[in-house]
Design a protein that fits this description.
The protein has 332 residues and is of the alpha/beta class. Helices cover 40% and strands 17% of the residues. It has a domain at 94-321: NAD(P)-binding Rossmann-like Domain (Rossmann fold), CATH 3.40.50.720. The chain is built from 13 helices and 15 strands. Bound molecules: NADP nicotinamide-adenine-dinucleotide phosphate.
Length: 332
């Protein structure tokens, strides 16, 4: 394990030196987990991250993360070793099943979360943060929703998330559980421009539906804010930028800012026939506008990218800058 505690010469140095002895255990160090790891390392956390992929484990190690090769069906022992009283635990795994099987807290999709929470209780961790999804709201015909709005999940993913959330909110454990309901995650390498470049984006139903998004950089910052000053009781927060936009406006913005052409379009019926995936279809039909007041007010959190346009602008600019650097670089 990497040691974060420096050797201190005298008491004055001890008083003046901030030593972060906390660990950040990221269960599922994927796209968001990697950005969180990067920011947590900057904040002097010792970071541990799980992956099933040996190549990704090497990349994590190169970043300064202690990688654990772990599949959710494996024994927990390798992860358990890190679930100590210094640990902030972030669960960032998907729902793992495609179709919903009812069963409430006993359902198969709740089991991996329950197993980990029980291990956290045994280890005595500081906090458990569960990355959920705004899919739990279901369809509210484009109305504004906040954390107190009734949940009407209508997709398997949404229903599974809602069961997991209900289980977590009812957990009688010695540490606070925080649920972050994430909107559509975007960031470097994950913008509509990236999908359009690869020919993997189709505008559905004229792009009328509003979409709720958040930049991965802000997600990681918000998680660190929860760690720093999150509530001592179980609590749910929407993690979105609070400025939902119709998909069409985002595509228009991308086309204006880049040389990319307007993507192919499809009706909802065509999309449903092509994908044959009710979860993906629900994502294209459920209309909600997600409020983020609780995150901003209760945690005094300010987004760096308060709408998708500011986030995309920064990413596209960075891509342009790196392209220029590559062009300007002399041949090796
Ligand atoms: N993408 C979105 O727009 C969106 C929106 C709302 C909520 N969410 C949720 O937010 C969280 C973070 O999203 P993300 O896009 O950053 O996720 P991601 O990049 O897909 O990463 C998911 C992580 O889960 C791990 N994982 C998947 N199946 C596993 C299994 N069977 N056993 C062990 N580990 C497993 C992956 O491990 P490997 O490294 O081995 O692949 C990866 O580290 C996820 O829970 C996601 O479902 C995403």
């Amino acid at each position: 394990m990497r040691l974060t505690t420096p050797i201190l010469e005298n008491r004055t140095e001890l008083e003046n030196t901030f030593v972060n002895t906390q660990t950040m255990v990221i269960v599922g160090a994927g796209y968001t987990g990697m950005e969180l790891a990067r920011q947590a390392i900057e904040a002097d956390f010792e970071v541990i991250g799980t992956t099933r992929d040996p190549e990704k484990a090497k990349r994590l190690e190169a970043m300064g993360v202690t990688p654990i090769l772990w599949d959710v069906n494996d024994e927990l022992a390798a992860v358990e070793a890190y679930l100590t009283d210094q640990a902030q635990v972030v669960y960032s795994l998907p729902t793992l099943f495609k179709s919903y099987e009812a069963g409430g807290a006993q359902a198969r999709h709740v089991a991996p979360v329950r197993r980990l929470v029980e291990a956290c209780q045994d280890g005595g961790v500081r906090r458990f943060i569960y990355l959920s999804s705004t899919s739990v709201y279901g369809d509210h015909s484009g109305e504004w929703v906040d954390e107190s709005t009734d949940l009407w999940p209508n997709s398997s993913y949404g229903k599974m998330r809602a069961d997991i959330e209900a289980f977590l909110m009812g957990c009688d454990v010695d540490f606070p559980i925080t649920i972050a309901r994430l909107g559509g995650i975007y960031g470097p390498g994950r913008t509509l421009a990236d999908f359009m470049r690869k020919g993997r984006y189709t505008l559905i139903d004229g792009g009328k539906k509003v979409t709720n998004r958040i930049h991965v950089h802000d997600i990681a910052r918000a998680i660190l804010t929860v760690v720093e000053k999150g509530p001592k009781e179980h609590r749910i927060f929407n993690f979105t930028d609070g400025h939902p936009q119709p998909a069409r406006d985002v595509v228009e913005f991308v086309c204006e800012q880049t040389s990319l052409e307007w993507p192919p379009e499809e009706t909802l019926e065509e999309y449903a026939r092509r994908t044959e995936d009710p979860n993906r279809l629900a994502r294209r039909t459920n209309a909600i506008r997600v409020l983020n007041e609780r995150l901003r007010r209760e945690l005094d959190f300010e987004l760096i990218y308060p709408d998708v346009f500011s986030g995309y602008q920064a990413i596209l600019q960075q891509e342009d800058d790196s392209a220029e650097e590559t062009t300007a670089a002399p041949p090796a």
